[in-house]
Protein: Alpha-N-acetylgalactosaminidase
Organism: Paenibacillus albilobatus
Amino acid sequence: MKNNIKVGVIGLGARGMGLLTAVILPMDGVEVAAVCDKYQDRGEAAAKAVAEKGGKRPFVTRDYREVLALGELDAVVIGASWADHIDIAVAAMEAGIYAACEVGGAYSVQECWKLVEAYERTRVPCMIMENCCYGRDEMMVLNMVKQGVLGDIVHCAGGYHHDLRSEIAFGKENRHYRLNNYIHRNCENYPTHEIGPIARILNINHGNRMVSLVSMASKSKGMQEYIRKEKSGDAELMQTEFMQGDIVTTVIKCAHGETITITLDTTLPRYYSRGFTVRGTKGMYMEDNHSIYLDDMHEEFHMDWKKQWGNVERFREQYEHPVWKKYIEEGVKGGHDGMDWLVFKDFFDSVKQGTGTPLDVYDMAAWMCISALSEESIALGGHPVAIPDFTNGKWMTR
């Protein structure tokens, strides 16, 4: 058991820098010994933030391989672009360093296998930092499911419903990788916010698994409309055709018969939502109207559903997840309503204790491969595509 660990932070754009200042630096027993970004100014800004927090100035580099070669790190936090996540995670495991990998989608199934094979070769843990698995409502519903309150779970849904038009359109100015992805790809490009909490509900990789998917994409019109309205002076973007469909719908079948629907919705005007929905034989939870419906409690309202909208708070005392009960008592910290703090605390606790991580490479591979497989299904006109078993059969007994 280590009381103090040294970490490196690789990738210091908006997400990486936000995590550094709001979560990593305030965490007890964690020293940031190295920072890395391909843009020198970002690395220098991060080093300054570490020094201002009271730590010594960290090692600064533009090459992540120099971070891994230091020989003194216990872990690295990977917040680089989607296309770099898996390569850096594999290199970290091969260097004997725990890897905390920010979320995104894979570009091929092969790179997901590469990730799994690196872990099985090195036995060095790698954790996908899916903060939505630690959301207050997501964990309360998980607690209800484990207690049988919603009965036998039949169907779940989720979405990444987030208006990102400004972030995408100003990708060149902000040095953000989303722009190129939306120009060149058409897929469910950000699946883990949706699939992570659902995978825990359905015991994916722990007695159940996802076996196949079908994806369809709408036409792409949202970005062109936004650019005409907000960035008409950008001659290059005005002439750009975006491949990414405005709405991508993916339906997944599980080994035990459950279905999952996930939706990518990021280039049309809308409010933010993850659309988290759980349907069971005894009731349901729905994020978009913040409601729980139980068969033996609310059946008289089934034709007047609005009377039950917003009723989740009534269930807190009985079903709040123990993790959140303790968290609220101690004081919620960090970003994204406290989710970031919880996911990083779990990771750093695993590093200090030298144990496996609660979300592992098998979860990471299964969730991230959905991007590559949805791209294939869309290209084939909605053809079903098999989802690999990255556990090689161990899902039945893990």
